[in-house]
Amino acid sequence: MIKVNFKTIVFALSLSLVALFYTSCKSKKPVVQPKEEPAEVVEPAKPVEPVKEVDTDGDGIPDSKDECPEVKGEASNNGCPKEEMKVYDYKNIQFEFNSSVLKTSSYAVLEKIAQQIKNSGNGRFLLNGHSSAEGTEQRNMALSVDRANAVKAYLVNNGIASSRLITKGFGESQPIADNTTEAGRILNRRVEIAPEK
Prior knowledge:
Elements: H1 6-25, H2 107-118, E1 125-129, H3 137-157, E2 165-169, H4 182-188, E3 191-195
Parallel strand pairs: 1-2
Antiparallel strand pairs: 1-3
């Protein structure tokens, strides 16, 4: 039989308790939780208000698109007011006797008329040819049409679209002066221009 020494058992138990106590009391490293960064607060985007363009004349067309920014106009005329084509005194749109060739004195007036037509939007214009009472009625009718076409050709050469010009001849039927005098007949050899209605 094995003799167990009481002191040895107590000593072994003491060692075991010390070891147990030592391991259980050993300092433990604290568990470090990762720091949470505070969530970034994102504010909702504010709607961008459109930049209001300047409209000096108050016609609803911004100055950047308005060719006449200081005068009320119409969008169809690039912000400029439409010029009314008035019934002008076209005594300067004259032709020689029995001819559809423009007199050179008519060129300056036709250039002004071409500019007015360009500034008047997209409207169409009537070119009404007339003649004096000399010659036959058929000849005068043909001559009045040729005169209207001569004015049309001049205006087209000055940048007016052909589709905007309507020619018509009236012959000797609408005189503006007395056909019994040469001064009156000169005035009757003419072309009148008016906006189409």
